[in-house]
Design brief:
Layout lengths: L4 H25 L4 E10 L5 E12 L5 E12 L2 E3 L9 E2 L3 E12 L7 H5 L3 E14 L2 E14 L5 E4 L3 E3 L5 E11 L6 E3 L1 E8 L2 E7 L4 E3 L4 E11 L4 H9 L1 E13 L2 E13 L2
Antiparallel strand pairs: 1-2, 2-6, 3-4, 3-5, 3-7, 7-8, 9-11, 10-11, 11-16, 12-15, 13-14, 13-17, 17-18
């Protein structure tokens, strides 16, 4: 062997053995990061849809920072694949800390069920998430699987109920009837209701249209009460005129629509009320 190559060979051997030692040291000192499902977040809830966010915790127990190298994520709701977002690749995870990773999905109920009302009749809907993340570490990329499944509460159409109407301003031609209306959010979370509007009949006669206007963001289990006056024309509603004249019990039917999240859903109320003079 050429003597001039011996120093180079010695340096190469030293560097190679040093790298091997460093790799072995890193493998011994480096601690495996942990990755777990933390909780499910529901936001922007309406009768049209919601944002469903699976939240995961990535724990880095090492004194060096890590970063996301790859992301594979799939989300299904009621066994139907939905499009979901993911944290950006290259996201930094600080040393000796835990970071939350969010995988949000904007869920439209019409993409899950052909008839939205059918879906909203369910108490709960199922979801399942699967995939993996790749974490860039000093010893290479580590693949951490993710998998979880569970249920979330499906939004319910508000409950509509009448109080006892009050008769005012009676003339030979007609009368004004004030209809107390209670709108109840049956969900445990807030629900936006931009209005309840529909045709009203009294004693089988169509007497006009009631509209609550925008009720805003109704708190969970909350109730909003409104009183809606309606002028009844006796000539066009003879059967209603009779019950208004005598007062007492009468049947009301309210064929309405509840508007929430840009979607209008039917709600039908048939109720016996007591007309008060």
């Amino acid at each position: 062997m050429n003597r001039r190559l011996l120093p180079l060979l010695a340096v190469f051997t030293l560097v190679t053995s040093g790298c091997a030692y460093l790799q072995q040291f890193l493998r011994t000192a480096f601690q495996q990061p942990s990755f777990r499902f933390k909780n499910l977040g529901l936001t922007d809830i309406s009768l049209a849809g919601l944002n469903l966010d699976t939240i995961w915790e990535l724990n880095n127990p090492n004194q060096v920072g890590l970063s996301l190298a790859s992301i594979e994520y799939a989300l299904a709701v009621e066994e139907k694949q939905v499009i979901a977002g993911a944290p950006p690749q290259g996201l930094q995870i600080a040393p000796n800390s835990a970071s939350d990773l969010h995988f949000p999905a904007a869920l439209k109920f019409q993409d899950i069920a052909a008839v939205v009302e059918t879906f909203l009749n369910k108490d709960y809907a199922s979801y399942a998430a699967s995939g993996a993340i790749g974490v860039n570490t000093p010893i290479g990329i580590i693949r951490l699987p993710l998998s979880t499944q569970g249920q979330f509460e499906v939004p319910k159409v508000p409950l509509i109920a009448f109080g006892n109407p009050r008769i005012t301003n009676v003339t030979f031609a007609g009368a004004t009837v004030e209809f107390p209306l209670a709108v109840t959010n049956r969900n445990t979370y807030a629900l936006p209701v931009s209005g309840v509007t529909g045709g009203l009949s009294l004693a089988g006669a169509n007497i006009g249209t009631l509209s609550t206007g925008d009720l805003g963001n109704m708190e969970g289990r909350g109730v909003k009460s409104v009183t809606l006056p309606l002028t009844v024309n006796f000539l066009s509603a003879a059967s209603a005129a009779v019950v208004i004249a005598r007062g007492g019990n009468a049947q009301v039917a309210f064929n309405a629509q509840v508007q929430s999240g840009g979607l209008a859903l039917p709600v039908n109320v048939n109720q016996l009320v007591n007309l008060v003079k």
